[in-house]
Specification:
The protein has about 80 residues and is of the alpha+beta class. The protein has a single domain (about 5-80), classed as WGR domain (q64v53_bacfr protein fold, Single Sheet), CATH 2.20.140.10. About 20% of the residues lie in helices and about 45% in strands. It is built from 1 helix and 5 strands; from the N terminus they run E-E-E-E-H-E. It has one helix at about 60-75; strands spanning about 5-15, 20-30, 35-45, 50-55, 80. A 5-stranded antiparallel sheet has the order 4-3-2-1-5, with helices on one face. The chain is elongated. The chain starts with 5 loop residues before the first strand and ends in a 6-residue tail after the last strand.
Length: about 80
């Protein structure tokens, strides 16, 4: 069971270079009791790509979540006011 929700949606845009990217992450349980970190990324408006990481403990997933968040912040990704549906 996940102790608290972990969801992130950030974007990076630059009109001069025609760049509009998004990056989304969430930590969720799977049907087998493992903890999964789901990552989605791509061009805003496209389906993009997805990767799932499986962990035995929530702490490991949270550590990767925070490491990836730091990397994305360094590259210029910033949160949006509301998450798209």
């Amino acid at each position: 069971m996940i102790s608290q929700p972990y969801h992130l949606y950030v974007e990076r845009s630059d009109a001069a270079s025609n760049m509009a990217r998004y990056y989304a992450m969430s930590i969720e349980p799977n049907l087998f009791g493992d903890v999964c970190l789901l990552r989605k990324w791509g061009r805003i408006g496209s389906k993009g790509q997805m990767k799932v990481h499986h962990f035995g403990r929530e702490e490991e997933a949270v550590q990767l979540f925070l490491d990836l968040l730091r990397q994305k912040r360094k590259r210029g990704y910033r949160p949006r006011a509301s998450m798209p549906r």
